[in-house]
Amino acid sequence: MANGFSPDPEAPVLVIGAAGVDIVGRLRSEVRPGTSTPAQIRFSFGGVARNIAENLARLGLRVNLISAVGKDEYGERLLQGLVSAGVNTQAVLCTSQEPTSAYLAVINPPGDLQFALDDMRATNSLTPDYIRGYAELFKEASLLFIDANLPKDTLRTVMSLARKARLPVCADPTSVVLAPRLRPYLSRFFLMTPNTAEATVLCDRTTPVVGLRLALDAAKCLVTNGVEIAIVTLAEQGLCYATSETYGHIPAIKTTIVDPTGAGDALSAAVIFALLNDIPLDDAVRLGVSAASLTLHSRGAVASDLSLEKLYDQLVI
Fold it and tell me: What does the radius of gyration of the chain's CA atoms come to, in whole angstroms?
């Protein structure tokens, strides 16, 4: 693993970032401005860090989550769901200053994200002092995962504590708007999993990263900038990955898209699980594609029946 450090898969994974409510509407026809459009609307819990934590727990890993929710019914139900999935939520902040975060997405009839809104104010409650109060969780962790919803000062503190604890750090850029927050730390990341739009920003490209060749170039760019394992996701085209020693492309598994929300988070979690269990990178990435496919076929941000057996059953590539 990173810098010759080999994490203990029995030690907990530390996950830090956003948790909230997902409201996703799948259109049944094209949007008509100024009026309502028929759709299927579902409510569930999400947030990149929350999704990663639940996926890892369902795969059998011990997980400590540092996040923030409001002191409201949504926050209470969100935490109950995580606890029932096996996530340790004792470090989750319950704030009365902001409501539980929310993500509102509109999916077009073929299953692609048309647009989305997010309100992540609760995550701003994760101050540097709050994070420092849980320094012991860094010391006992096998690996750290973060999303880019963290405020800049908090992110700096998180990275400092991770360095002191010699923790490999995995990161999700989360969105085009938030991705630049991670750019100063590229040389510190063990694993990074941007989509093509986020990779365009992280690599400071003037033209969009589109297609296999440019995605592979972007993965290699991230490695050149210090990322140990870079995975650039390409939706229906699968993904490209690179390290200093190898690179490749894994096609997507053909599946009916019920809801694209959380597919990338499932991919990241499965790759992390595999690497912690000494599964070779090429196989780890294939398991990630399998996890993404399972999640695409599920209503909600996490496949409730996720398991290692399910991943291998789905793995037909």
Answer: 18
